[in-house]
Every structure is written in structure tokens, then in C-alpha cells.
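Worked Example 4.2. Read the sequence first, then its C-alpha cells.
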Amino acid sequence: MVDKMKRVLTLLSAIGLISCGTFAAELVIVSSGRSKAKIVASSQAPAVKFAGEELSRYIEKMTGAKLPVVKTDNSTGETKIVLEDADANLAFEEFSIGTEGRTIRISGGSPRAVLYGVYELMEHFGCGFWSPVNESVPSLKKLSIDPKWKVVSKPAFAWRQVHSQYGYNIKWKPKARINGSMWTSPTPKELGGSDSMAMGQALAGINNNEGSKKLFAEHPEWFAWREDEKRHVRQQMCTLNDDVVKAIVSKIRSRYRSNPSRISYQSVSMRDNGKICQCKKCSRFAKKHGGASSLIVECANRVAREIAGDLPNVRIVFLAYWITSAPPKGLTIEPNVTVCWAKLRNFAVPPSKVEGHDKALDRWRKLADGNVVIWDYNAQFRGFLLPTPIVDMMGPSLREYSEKEIKGVLMQMAGFGAILMDFAELRTWLCAKLMWNPAQDEWELINRWCDGACGEGADEVKEWLKIRKTARDRKRSYGPYDPDSLHVFKPKELIDGYLLMKKGMKETENDPRTHAQMRRLLLSPLTALICNYNRGVSSAARAAKIDLPPRDKLLDEFEAICSQYKVKSFGEGMPSIAEFVKLMREGGELLKRK
């Protein structure tokens, strides 16, 4: 109990909550299974109504007592939990929790913020929203709150999105305070809604595969001229072509005829390939302004100027990535344009330790007057299931982005179909927590997740995470396209990870929730053993006198987990799970020594 209280107090301090006084003069909400309070939600907003229902539902799950939810209540002398969504003193997603007499008040700058406040209160009472499929709710005879306890909380980043299968779960997103809706359905209003940010490789959609086929047949001159091929190619468009700019503007205007009340972002970006236009106009412009990024900056600026008058709530966002990642020279960026900077780099160190990183980012920030969002990575693209030892590096990265007042972050972790990527649930939960407040200590959060999500298996999970950090720090190099686990890990370390997760499964076999979590965590070290079985793992096992199952038996276990959780994808440009298993059973190898 002492350890639990220490963890709670440490967490409150880490996320900037104010806690003072003692719990002596507590406000009782439930006692001995009987309700001592009611919930008042007078707002007409669907999210506030839902917040009241959620508050009542979780309190009933914790205590067995169901608190009534009412629209109005003028009684005195009775404890009330009041939900308010019109506090002009709070920013849009900011919330506060405090008491006034016998009233516990959860206020927000928006209905979404009120819902965040309700989940904050539930976590304060001991609930854990570890993932969409792993949630813990304590069983309590008494539920009370210190009347001197106060909370005021708002996000460090205005836009937050975690690109993982778990991060796109609509019902879980408000619990994690993920507000982005790119690549997924928008969060409905009753769950708080979401913010639109289209920042992929698109020119407002006119260059998608189907559309570009038709356009290329009708207007080949709209597309990139490749001097080496002496022809126009469909892979890119000529972004300085006047008709292309007009087509983009027309597409955006047709999409936003009913202008949204909140800001929407529309992508004007090059596609993900190097076939940029080499026509005389583009070549001269790129040479004058220092590279390919100038071609998309100029296009975005022209579109932005066209729509500024009639679509004031639509912002243009362009992707500064790969061939367009370097800032241009001699250009400024329109005030209704946002830069999304995506930089592949060494993720074993903080961004500021990568040569040239901060210099380029600061230049983009200056050009865009601070209107910059980051497309970041915590990924292993060639092997989603392989151990990816950079979980904790999200903390240093997000702190540095916050210090530079970056407006929003997308953290890409895996592709679709890779639901059980390495430590998928921890990485998604941790990223969401740090995006809200990067000042928190990532290892305190990691340990909190291990304790709550893994129960009796927590010690084994923490030990495996410690091994991974040691291996990563020893190498000090890890990129998103390093598929070879032996680049970082010693074979014995991979074996230890597998054995620790097996031990954790044994420790949790009497608890279905945490046992299932340990089974999901097993897949990553298991995959590494299979891939590296004949590349040092089996000999390391013999040397350590460890009775490791043969590779076929490990494949049986691998197939069972993948089948249970419908895992289809191994990695970008890699075989499917079915093809991988077939290759391994035939004695082949996926990874090769360099």
C-alpha cells in the first residue's frame, strides 16, 4: 500500500498536478457500496453527457454503487460532481478538477476537455487504461477525495497522433487524449471529437493513384518531366504548373464548401519517391532556391494565397521529407501554411545529438513563423515484430520538440496489419502520455505501465526493458530501417528476453488479463529467436546450457500467437507472416549477415 501511494504521489508531481493537505477532511463519494453523491451534467454537448455516463459507469465498476446522472440539481449539503464545458479561463483541451464546499467540479474549455478530466479522475482513483484491450479497475469499498486536491492540465502539443493499430482505437483515444484522426475515422462527438490533419504525400488528392491515371491520360504536361527519360512520368506532378495549382485550389474549395468552425489541414505535398520534375522552370527554380523543397513550398504558398480569403479556417500543410527535408533559400512561407517535418535519423540518441537536425528544424521554424508539426518515428519498418529498443527515447525527443514550441506530433510506429508490433501497447500508451506532458519521466511511466498492465509479470518485463536499453546504449545507433536484431543485441540477450516473457506468462497464469498481455509481449523476442536461430542463438543457448526448443517448435508458438491476434504483416517490403513461416520451415533465412 505504501508503494502504491508513493507511485500515485510521484505521478501527480510528474504531470504538474497540485496536491496539498491530507486526506483527513475527505469528500465521500461512495461508502460501503452506497452512493453518497450524484453527477450533474447540464450541458447539451454529447461529450459531456457521455462523460457523465462514463463517470457513473466506472464508479459502479469500482464500488458497486451507481451514481445518478442528472441535468440540474439545486440541493445543498449533498456531495455533487459537476461537469462544465464552458470555462472561458481554460484553453480548448484544458481541464481543471477541484472542490467548492461539497461540490467536486470538473471544468473544461470544451466538451472534449471535460471527458479528459473524467478519465483523469478515474486514474486518480486507481483505474488504468493501459491499452484498448487491457484495462484495470480497482475494487473499493470507499471512494473519496481530498477537498484540497486541485488539478489544472493542458497539452504540450495542440495536435497528437500515435500511428499504431492501438492508437487508432476510437473508444480508447479519449482515454489516452489522442486527438488526431489522420488515416482513421474521426472520433464521434460523444467521444469528444477529433482534429483533422491531412499531411500525407498528396496534392489535395489529385495525385492519388486512380485520379492520376485519368489526369495523366488527359494532361501529361501536368506531370513531372524527367530529363533522363525524356518524358513525363506519373510518379510526381509538376508543382509549378499553373493548371496544377488551379486544380489543387478547386479540389480544396469543393471539399470545404461548408467551412468548418475549427481549423482543418489540407496536404499539398510531393509523393514518396524521388521522381521530381526536371522541366526547365522547375530546374531553374530549384537551383535558385537550394533544392527540391522549394518546389513544394512555392506550390503550397500559391494555393494558400488563393484560399486565404474564402477559406480562413483551412490551413495548407506540406510534408518536408526525404528529398524535400532541407529548408529552401530565399523563400518565405505564407501565414496559413504549416510545415510537417519528417526526418529519418539515428533514434538511439535525442534529436539534438544528430548532426544538423536542430539547425534544419530551426530554419523551418523561422521560415514558417513557428507553424511546424513533426512527423516522428519510433519504428522498425523492416521488422515490426522485432525488438525495437528505443521505447524510452520518445521522452527526450518530445521534450526537445516541446521546448521548440512545435505545434503537433505524429509518432509513426508501424504499418497497418502489425497490431502486435514490439511492445505495441506500452509504446502507444507511453507516447500518448508524453505527448500530453513531455516533462514526465519516461521510466517512471514505463514502470507504472508494467505494474498495471502486467501484474505479477511486471518484474520480468522491466528486466527485459533494462536489457534492451543496455544493448541500445552500448551501440548508440538505431534507425527505422535496421532489420537485423544482431545489429544491437547479443544472441544471449535475445534468449533472455524470450525466457523472461515465458516466466512472466507463468507468473500470471491465474490472471487472464495480465496473462494475455504477457502472451502478446512474448511475440517480439520469439520472432527474434526464430530469425536468428542459426545466426548465433542456438550456439549461445548451448554455451549457456539453456534448453531452447528447436526452431520448428518456436514457429508453432509464433503461428499460434499470430493467428490468435490476426497479425498479418512482418514489415515494409518483407514477406507476409504466412510467407515468413513457410520460409523458416523450409530452412530458409530472412535476415542475412552484412
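Now turn to a second chain, presented in exactly the same format:
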Amino acid sequence: MVGATRESATIPAVRQKNTMTVRRLTVALAVVIELIGAGGCSSTESAQRQAGQAFLAAWAKGDIPAAAKATDDPVAAEHVLHAAGQALDSTAAELTPGALTLTKDATTMAFAASWTLAGLPTPWRYQGKLAIAKGGDGQWRVHWQPQDVHPQFGIADTLVVNRTLPQRAPILDDAGQPLVTERDTVTVGVEPKLVTNLDDLAGTLASALHLNATEVISAVEQAKPTDFVPVVTLRQADYRAVQAKIHDLPGTVFRTGTQLVGPSRHFAQPLLGQVGKPTAEALHQAGPGYLPTDQIGLSGLQQVFNGQLAGAASATIEIHDAQGNTVAQVGQFAGHPGSPLNTTLDTRVQQAAETALSGVGLHAAIVAVRPSTGEILAVANSDSAPFDIALAGQYPPGSTFKIVTATAVLSSRVARPNSPVPCPGTVTIDGRTIPNENAFNLGTVSLTDAFAHSCNTSFALLSQKLPPGALDQVAAEYGFEAGWRLPVNSFSGSYTPAKDAAGQAANAFGQGTDLVSPLSEALMAATVAHGSTPAPMLVAGQPATAKQPPPSPPAAVLASLSDFMRAVVTRGTATNLAGVPGGAVFGKTGTAEHGNTAPPQADSWFTGYQGDLAFAMLVENGQTSGVPANPLAQKFLTALHTTS
């Protein structure tokens, strides 16, 4: 866990020259000017009020020289006000003039102070008082004294801000166990002045650490010669595995530490996200209450729920005397610890998905959900995935869309499970030639077998017999266009009605305008298993809402779909799953061509369910590259049921 840290700053209030390097506040601070008694007051009172207002206005804006000149001792005032700014590190201020009090011996102006301090979520507020005095030149000014900063501030006193961060709360799995824990890490970095050949260095680091060489080059080129440019943070074990390849490269430097990380480098990434020192953009997104030195969520769930996980810092503002003793505590911020985030992820299912993707060099992803509840049990991406393609990727579904088309065919009574349907090697519809894979020809088969063997031509022909809008309606029943609202970016699938017969045929076997994600594919299988599309849930007790809640397909039709998906495994395109442990598997394979190459690139899909577990596997260009999704499904289920 992130340990508690303490930060303090002090300011001297004695009059000294050139003994402290000071900095102007760089944030424009707002001042609230309250004109009290604007009418009916004497010219003397008006001048006194203007003197106090001028001081407060300049001080609030961070114009310390101007504020000091509004006093009768500019040198002492500027020194102390500068130091006060350093100690408070304020990002905004309101110094509101109050009432004038005139006595026989003196005139004072009350003011209300509200300082917004960096790293604290609420302002420091107090009531102050200024003495107003007339100088030898006849001008009214603030009579400088330490109490102008704070009523309890005295000569030789200092302000001290003590800030303590709470421990960051963990992200938990569905059993209440942390998904990430604090582990020893090594951050691999580059010091630009030590680099002899940046292109070679970036290329070697990219190859050894699975990074983007261009991004490394860009980061180093924008840094100062002596900067530490972080490249990647590794667990100690992961670092030792690549140490020999990168340790002696000219330019590489290393920092050890601890960080909240999962059991492996890519465990549930990028969903869980990273924790680290923020960029300026991340600090802005986090909102008030954080400093550039804090550890905050930079991505994924760590960023979305940063406020909950990080908690709030506690702090005291104290006045110390010259010997460092506490004279008074003039401000206190209670703060609070972070609270854990309870997710629906099942560590055992997640680890099985990670095992299945291990060694897959292509972009690939696995999502698993519980059909009865919609709980998302696993979200896994291969090491090379450029973002969370498991939840937010958008791809043509290929033949997995035949789940939708078969449902539409049965619902519209165009055919029954045992109806004979043609499965020629190719078919031409409205000028477009549609082939089966390698133009296989089964002649005439039952609708069940056409589904099991994934006959493109059968479903293209059947689509022409569907009533208008039938595919649109059934796509909606499977969650297309639902627009599920999850805490992180996700894609629920999209379906665009075809404009002509050829488009309808292409849509029918998933090579038209329809798009899916591994998440939406897993929900398709869950719909068959459950009887309706369950609302996906990533945070325990918080099912996603939908922009367009999906209606339920007819129960009798879904029973036939279960038979179809079982036939895929027993005698169709996924017989490798017939003997996996854990019980009967139901599923559908898919190949989705894309691009303009000849032959075209083709993604590989498998979506299915086993008991109360629905899942989907995607391998980008997997069919083209000989890495189909079926073996990943086999590896996933085997790992799931053979791991204690």
C-alpha cells in the first residue's frame, strides 16, 4: 500500500534581506472586494478603506511587491508575504474586506481569508485584522505587523503546513480479495545525456519490453539532458528476466521502489489501470486535493475511482516560534482514508484468461461474464493490445452473427431447426458473390448443420426471406445498440440496417455493417444461456444501465439456439472443445475479413457458454496468421477447471 508521507514548509517572520529565495505565486488568485459603507462615509474613512482594500487585493492576486508597497514597511512585508506564499502553496484565495473600526488611537479593518491550498480539498479560512495608519506623506497605508498574516502570528514565528496522505485502498475481486498489492518494482528509464544512439536504444527497449519505440524516442527528445525519463515499471521478477538485455545499454537508468501492481505485468490490464506520479493532465483530471508528488490513478479503474481509492489527505497548519516549538494550531483538515472498490472480477477466471492469452503475439482479448447476473468475471488483453480491446474494441463479428440471423429465421418461421437448406460453395445475391470458407459445398443440410458448419451461403440465402426489419429487431434483442454505461469505456455493438439485398446478405453472416466487441459477443452467448441479455456489471451492486434496454428473444427460439451452439462443438467447427473439463460447451466460431489486401486479413472469434459462464475470444488477424480463437477457448476452459 502507499505509505503515509509528511510534507512541511516554514517561513521566517523576521526582517531580513537576501536570506531566502522566494517565488511569486504563479496562479492568478481571485479577490472579493466588499464595499461596506460606500455611501455616507467621510473622505478619511474612504481613504482608509481604500488602503486596506489595495493591500488585500494585491495579496490575493499574488502580487506581493504591490501588496508590500501598500504597507508602511515594504521590505519587511514583502519578505514575510513571499515566505507565506511558499509555505501555503495556495492556488486560489479570497480576501474579503470587512468593517472599519475607528477608535481614538487606531483604525482597523477586518477581513475574511479563504486560502485554497494545493493538495487539500477544502480552503483554509480564518478572520483577520489590519491596522491602518497615516504616513508622514499624508497617505493612508496598512501598518505592517506580523499579525497582518494571521492574528496569532508574531515576530520570528513561522507557518508550517503538515500534510499526511492516507493509504490507498485496494481494488477487490468478487471474493473481497485485493486484485493488486504493493510489490517491489524497478522502473526502467532513460537519461538523455547518457544516450549514444537513441534509435538503437529505443529499438532494443521496445523489443525486450514490448513497447513502442517511437514513443520512447519522442519522450527522450522532449526531456532535458539530466532528466529521468520513465519507460516502464516492472516487477522485480519481470525485471530480472530482461535485465541482461537492457541493463548495460548506454542511456538506461533504473530506480527501485514499490507500487500497487497485479500478480503479472498485464494482469487485468488496462482495465485496472496504473497508479503513479501524475502528469499535469492527470492532476487536473483528479481535481483538488492532490499534489504532483502524490501517487494517483492514471488510467482504468484506478483513475475513474481515484477519489474513492485515494481518500483525502489530512493536514494541520501551525505557527512555530524561532525554536521550532508549536505556538498555535490555526488550521486543521481531518481527511479520510480511501475505501476499497469491490469489482465483479473473479481472480480464478481472470487468471485462466491470462493463461490462455500468454504467448499470443497478436492483439487478442477474452471477456467472461456470468449469464445469470451479468457480472463481468474476466477482462483480459494480450500484451500487444493497444488499449482495452476486450471492452471497447469494435470489430466485424463474422459468423458469430449467425446467432442473430438464426434467431431471426426461427422467430419469423422462415425455417425450422430440421428444415433442409442449401449450402452451395458460393452464391450470388444482387451482384455480390458470397463464398463459404474455401468454397466448401455441403449440398442440402438441416438448418442446424448449416449453423454448426457455418455455411455463409445458407444464411445469406435465408436472409432474403426474412420480413423487413427482422434482423434489426433480433440484433436489438441481443444487445446491439443497447449503449451499456459501464465505469470505463465499452462498446455494446452496433447494427446498421442494410440498404439492399446484398447488404442484407452480408449482414446475415457478419460481414456487413454490424460491429461488436468481445464484451458484446460474450453478452450474446449469455443471452442464449440466460434467456435475455443481462445488464453487464463491473462494480459489485452496480449493473450498467442501457440507453436502449434490449427486449428478450422468444424462449422457444433460444432453446433451439442452444441446440445449434451445442452442435458447433459436437460436430461442427469447434470439435476441439468437445472434451474440455467443466461440462458441455455451447458456442459459435467466426471469421471476419477486413481490409483491402488480397487475400484479405481475417480476425478469428469464438463465443460460447459453459454452465453459468459465458465468454468470448478475439484474435485480430488470427485466422490469417494461424492463431484461431478456438484453441484459446480450449486453453481457457482447461486452465479454469484444472487450477485449484
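Notes for the reader: Residues 43-61 form the longest helix (19 residues). The chain has two domains: 6-164, 347-642.
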